[in-house]
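Re: the 70-residue chain
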Amino acid sequence: MKIEIESTDKIVDIDGVPVRLWEGYTEHGIKCKAFIHRLAVHNDDDAGQFDRELKEQMQPDSIISLRQIL
């Protein structure tokens, strides 16, 4: 299965863990949601650019720690 997801500015609590809500759809067009606690960038890629793009989605009061949310 393949899905395409996009970050939202929503941080929700699942079992005491803050997770970011991502929304998207499958390759067959079925809408889905992903609740992601951690997301890593490969060592060879620009993690700083990734952090900046993700931070653009965050509301000021929802910033906890990008390293914990990713």
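The two ends are 22 Å apart (CA to CA).
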